[in-house]
Amino acid sequence: MKRLLLTSLLTAALTGASLPALAEKADRDQPVNIEADRLTVDDRNKVHIFEGSVVLTQGTLTIRGDKLVVTQDAAGFQNGVATAAGKGLATFRQRRDGTSEYVEGEAERIEYDSRSEKAKLFVRAKVTSGGDQVTGHYIEYDAITENYLATNAPGSKAGTPPSRVRAVIQPKSDGGQ
């Protein structure tokens, strides 16, 4: 698939959701490998649907889900939606650039738009890096501005049901000084 940016950009976008650290830069130059039980391709509409224990890998990046739908617009930009079946969660994991730490995320649905470089995690969303963790019903990350928003639901106002956003941020070592 031409310019399958879904993997590296999705992870780069999600990686910054809990910390300002960047995803492993070398992953962008690695080949994309996708395994699934079934693949349906609609070349006319530029839609690729991977189903059944989907595992996408690119360098240190791994995305898992029950279904991955990748669409491509006329300009060649990809949109991807990874989902889980039943009570499961779609997940990603990638090493942070220049460290041995990994960033991990999960949600019932993870969407990524390569044109805007925005990722959205829906329902039971969680992003962790080291001991830091952000959870909420909805997490949106903008890879261009490196800003993120976590809410109890998309477009919701603070203090409304079903739950509150939660963050756990560990104290950082000053290097022994």
How would you describe this protein?
- It is built from one helix and twelve strands.
- The chain is mainly beta and 177 residues long.
- Strand 2 (38-42) and strand 3 (47-58) form a beta hairpin.
- The chain has a six-stranded antiparallel barrel with strand order 4-5-8-9-7-6.
- Mean pLDDT is 76; it is low at 1-21.
- The chain has one helix at 6-15, and strands at 33-35, 38-42, 47-58, 61-72, 78-83, 90-95, 102-107, 109-113, 118-129, 132-142, 147-151, 166-168.
SSE order and pairing:
Layout: H1 6-15, E1 33-35, E2 38-42, E3 47-58, E4 61-72, E5 78-83, E6 90-95, E7 102-107, E8 109-113, E9 118-129, E10 132-142, E11 147-151, E12 166-168
Antiparallel strand pairs: 1-3, 2-3, 3-4, 4-5, 4-6, 5-8, 6-7, 7-9, 8-9, 9-10, 10-11, 10-12
Summarize it.
This protein has 177 residues and is mainly beta.
Search tags:
1 helix, globular, 12 strands, single chain, 177 residues, disordered N terminus, six-stranded antiparallel beta barrel, 49% strand, mainly beta
